[in-house]
Amino acid sequence: MHHCILSRTLANDILFGHSTIKVWALTGQPLLEMIGHTSLVYSVDAHSSGVIVSGSEDRSAKIWKGDLFCVLLRLSSC
Q1: Is the pTM of this model over 0.90?
Q2: Number of other residues whose CB lies within 10 A of the CB of residue 71
Q3: What distances in angstroms separate CA 60 from CA 2, 14, 44, 72, one per listed residue?
Q4: How far apart are CA 68 and CA 35, in angstroms?
Q5: 25-41 residue pLDDT tens
Q6: What gap in Å lies between CA 37 and CA 9, rounded to an integer?
Q7: Contacts 24+ apart (CB under 8 A), 31-35
Q8: What average pLDDT does the segment 35-62 reach?
Q9: E strands, 1-78, where?
């Protein structure tokens, strides 16, 4: 069973929980689909500048601008 989490920002809804992150306008219009993680996404944060940061079970953190990730951080085991 997959669980998804809805995060509400001031302007958009963000759905994550699989390896893909989806962003909708509060009107319900789809805005972005961010593909790049290879495992479950556990955390997402959005900045007012439009930058989105995501963390995944695949031990990576990604910084997104639009639907492309700009920075990839690979994390070693903790």
Answers
A1: no
A2: 11
A3: 20, 19, 12, 7
A4: 8
A5: 778 788 888 888 888 88
A6: 22
A7: 32/66, 32/67, 33/67, 34/64, 34/67, 34/69, 35/67
A8: 87
A9: 5-8, 12-16, 20-25, 30-35, 41-46, 51-56, 60-65, 68-74
